[in-house]
Amino acid sequence: MLCCSPGPAMESAEAESDILRRVRTLLRELDGHHPACQSDRGMLRWTLHKKIDQNPSNSPILVRILVKELERAERGDYRHYIIPLLHTLMYALIKAPCISDELCSRVYDFCKKLLTLPKPFCTIGLDYAARLKMEKTAPGMLYQRMVISEQSLRSDPYPYQEKIFIFADPELLSEAICKALLTDTEAARVSQSPRACMCYVITHAMQAALGEGCDLSALRMQLQGMPSSEVEHWFQEVVMAVECTGSKVAADRGQHMERLQSIYSAILSSSPPGDAPLEGLQGTPLPNPNISFHLWTEDDQLWKELVLFIRPLSQSCEPDHLSQDLDNFEIQDIISDCECCEQTRFSVLSTDSGIERDLPPTSEEPFAPCSADTEQSRLHRKGGIKKKPSPLESVAFLQTGCNGPGVKPTAKVQRRVGIPTEPTAPLLRLHTARIVLLGDDRILGRLAQAYHSLRKRETRRVFLTPRLNLQFYYMPVTGQPGALAAANPSATSPEELCEVAAYLGRADPWYESNINTLCHMIPKLATMPSSPSKHLVTDLFITDVIAYYVRMGAQPVCFQVYAVKVFFSSSSQEPAEDVFLTELCVRMQDSISPREVNPAKKKTTLDGPGIDLNVTYRKVVVSDRAKEVSLSLRSTGLSMKAIPANAAEDLACLNVDVTEVVRINNLSGRSFSTVANKLKTCNIKIRSTEQRPFTLCLDKDSRRTYRNVISLEVSPCLEPSYCLQKSRTMKFSLHEAEDVGLVKYMPKSLLLPINTFAGVIQ
Question: Which regions form coiled coils (predicted)?
Fold first, then answer.
């Protein structure tokens, strides 16, 4: 069934010509031919979709043009066009009021062709093919699921929820940027209500299935006059109809259209019939997702926000009590960690006396009648030690807050004699948290710290992992120096502070075109004088770019997190352990106290600047065999970079640049010069042989500086769950050095995944 009626031939030809020109301009930018107006860089995709939003009847034209360009790129082996065109097509298809079955099948057939290509083409093709198969059977299903999850609308057939968390470091970004982003995200969040979103789902589903046979104006007017309870009723009816059809293996599209036609007629049954002609296809807005903006001021702020997101609103309490409960959970975490290390057996803690008559009469079976089975279950006692109730036990609020479909009950099930216990349903990841980081490499260093801390916490006590799908996104923002700009003047250029963004741009051209090119635009928009046009641009542009990125960017690029152990010159100071993601920098300390200088080494000043270092590292060779290398040299400093200079290099390798001091003897006397010594390794140890201290800085962040360091050890950071399982395995096989049992199948290294549109294109 063709859903769009051809307009006047002239208007249709002009629209098609304009859309084709915009698509070709977008492709030329991917080839490196940037638009003449630099302000248009990064906005070509946005202007294309906004052009269609203004005239939704042109959506089939855009989809048809994009399909032709995809087929042309596949025939001509222009693979770098495929993923950008496919993302643009799918975003337009989701927002389109109606797409014909023939055109949807054409896109589906092309996605199946991508399965013969290597990653990431086959991965993205498989994902989109599965979605299109459901969309063909139940039109409007992709739009419906996106709105339900992003707005957290209550729906039993599709109970998933999503939320976007934007984190910005106030010491890295200017106050104007933070204030502007906070204002824009707050405006986007309050611009739509649950009732309006339900109406959007109803109208879009009707028009997607019925096409021009749907009187959208009458439907909107009828929904507007209904009470909220009735709107929710019809919303649930539409969701049930679409989900049931889309979830079936061999569903009939005709029956689905008949069911929606009956719902459509029932909604309009109370409205008087009108004689006005149908207006054709009209667009239904795709509401902004649920976005919250956070200034990252506390180390555990990320974990707390995720816990609050998981906890249902029905279990919410006052903010002061909630903060206290979170603190109690943290204390309980530490106690639990200590108990795991000290105790050799598990103990069952009990708060009662252990005497049956002290039990409340309805403590275990509140709704079951008293019977012999009940008496036996009440007499079934577990051994334990008596313990007074403590405020620390308020951690129960986290357990009770997880009740819902597919979640384990908090009450312990007692085994009854002759009655088998029912198997508990597995936990479902019904929540998706999309974490968007705004800033430069320094905020990614903080993210690596927070992620490592979260993984350690989850290893001690699992709470978020089985319930939450965690996704990370990164938008570089530069141009306005923050409070730390003067503290680290040697690394304030955008090129040095945005190495991760540069790598992602080289690996994914669509990320470079849509995200990297905007790093200077956000500060400019934030510092524009207040005017109606300024708010129009920021509300439509910044929010839409973030929404497009998190909706379509699903391919992760995994970065290795490195662990560093720092030893200090003072024997009374305990070694420190930390992690870094991008860079570790070692520099000579400027001042040395007189008592730190060894009198026997007064002549060492003749050896030139720097300090003597002993470097032991595991050399990276082609065969992947470990080769230990040790060398002694004099150096003025070194840097370890985890981000390669080009996308072809391995991410799981450190590039170490050592500035070595070389002594030169000539006729005029003794002189010194420096040479660059380059190493490639994953494990390295550095020690000052003179016991002269040096300074260590992590991830270019002056707040993460260690002074008076005499030795350090760097290695890939291990996944905390792997370490725990490894230690358990070693208890039973003390002489086994290799991974055995379950440990063999667990991820060994801690990787930080950052989503882009294509991942790494080989």
Answer: none
Predicted local confidence at residue 489, as pLDDT: 47
Q: Are residues 16 and 63 in the same domain?
A: yes
Task: List, as one string, the DSSP characters of 344-409.
Answer: SS---EESS-S-GGGS-TTSS-TTSPP-HHHHHHHH-----EE----GGGGGHHHHHTT-STT---
Q: Read off φ and ψ for residue 735, nearest 5 degrees.
A: -100, 5
Are the beta carbons of 209 and 480 closer than 8 angstroms? no
**209 and 101 inside one domain:** no
pLDDT of res. 523: 82
User: 435: which 2 tokens?
Assistant: 């974490």
Residue ranges of the chain with per-residue pLDDT less than 70: 1-11, 33-41, 191, 271-280, 312-427, 479-492, 529-540, 590-608, 622-624, 647-648, 665-670, 731-741, 762
For residue 661, what pLDDT is reported?
A: 82
The Cα angle at residue 152 between residues 543 and 291, in degrees rounded to 5: 25
Radius of gyration of the chain (CA): 31
List the structure tokens of 740. Answer: 């055995």
CATH number for 581 = 2.60.200
Q: Does some domain include residue 712?
A: yes
pLDDT score at 236:
96
535 phi and psi angles, rounded to 5 deg: -65, -35
| Rounded Cα distance, 449 and 453, in Å | 6
Locate all alpha helices (DSSP H) within 211-318, ordered by sequence.
Answer: 216-224, 228-247, 253-267, 301-310
According to DSSP, the β-strands at 349-350 and 385-386 are parallel
Residues 90 and 169 in one domain: no
Closest Cα partner for 482 from 700, 732, 241? 700
Distance of CA 137 to the CA centre of its chain: 31
CB 104 within 8 A of CB 87: no
Q: Is 551 in the same domain as 628?
A: no
pLDDT number for residue 739: 67
Examine residue 379 and state whether it is found in any structural domain, yes or no. no
Nearest to 85 by CA among 29, 18, 16, 33: 29
The residues with which 657 forms a beta bridge, in sequence order, are 639, 678
Q: Which of 510, 495, 593, 444 lies closest to 89, judged by CA? A: 510
Decide if 121 is inside a domain: yes
pTM: 0.83
376 residue type, one letter: Q
Tell me the per-residue pLDDT of 701-751, one tens digit each, with 9 for 90 and over.
Answer: 999 999 999 999 999 999 988 888 777 777 666 655 666 667 777 778 899
| pLDDT given at position 312 | 55
When divided into structural domains, the chain yields a total of 4
Tell me how far apart the alpha carbons of residues 569 and 693 are, in angstroms, rounded to a whole number.
6
Q: What angle do CA 119, 120, 121 make, to 5 degrees?
A: 90
Host domain of residue 171:
161-191+291-307+428-481+493-528+537-561+724-733+742-761
CA angle 451–455–457, rounded 5-degree value: 115
Instruction: Determine the distance from the C-alpha atom of residue 423 to the mean position of all C-alpha atoms in its chain, rounded to a whole number.
Output: 33
